[in-house]
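Protein of interest.
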Amino acid sequence: VHFGNDKNFNRVGWEYILEKYNGRLPIRIRAVPEGTPVTVSNVLMTVENLDPKCFWLTNHLETLLCHVWYPCTVATLSREIKKIIKHYLELTSENMGGLNFMLHDFGCRGVSSDESARIGGLAHLVNFLGTDTVPAIEAAMEYYGADLKTLAFSVPATEHSVMTARGPEDEARVIGDLIKTYPKGILSVVVDSYDYAHCVRDIIGTQFHDAVLAREGVLVVRPDSGDPEEVTLNIMNILGDKFGYTRNSKGYKVINPKI
C-alpha cells in the first residue's frame, strides 16, 4: 500500500527461507568484540549471504544492523572524554584515582526513549562506572548477566527542586538536613539555585564548615550553571580559603579531601 503496488513484498524469497531453513536467516555476521576501539577506515562488521537464492537478504538487513551507530557513538564520545580527563590528571595530579567516576551519566532524561536510555547508557558503562540511568543497569543484567554490585554506582545527589523546596531563606536549612541525613559517603549538593558564591562561602563554608569536616565522606559542591571556567575557579578558590588546601608534587593546589 505504501509504495502503491503489491510487488514489493518478496513472498517467494521469505517462503524459501521458511521452508529450507525453518525461518533462520542464511547469513554469517562477523564483528569485532563489543567495546573494542576501532580506527577509522576500518570495518566494524561484515554480513555475508550463504545462499545465492537469498542475494537480497544482506541489503534487507542493512537498516536494522546500522542501528549500532548509536552505542558506537556514545561509547566513542565517552572514551574520548575519558582520554581528555586522563590527560589533565596526568599533568596536574599525583594519581588517577576517581577517573572511572569523572563522567557521570544523567542522560536518561536526554534521550528519545527508554530503549535509547538502555542502549546508550550501557555504552557509556564501557568506559565509566557512574550512572543514574537505571534502564542501562537493567539491560546489562538482562542481556549480559552483569553483577549489580560491581556494574555501576551512584550517590545521593540533589537537584534544584530539592534545594528550592523551602525557598531562598531556608536554603541553609535544606543543606543542614541533608548533612544530617547522609553523615557518611559521598553527598552531592547543587549550589547555584540562588547565588552559588553565597551558598559555598557563607552556608557550606561557614555555617556547616565543622559539620562537613566531621562527615565520614566527601561533600560534592556542584555548580550547574554559569561560565564553567569562571564559576568553577571561583568555587575552588572559596573552598580553598574556607577548608584549606595543600600543594602536590606538581605544584597544583589540592583542596581538603572532605570536599
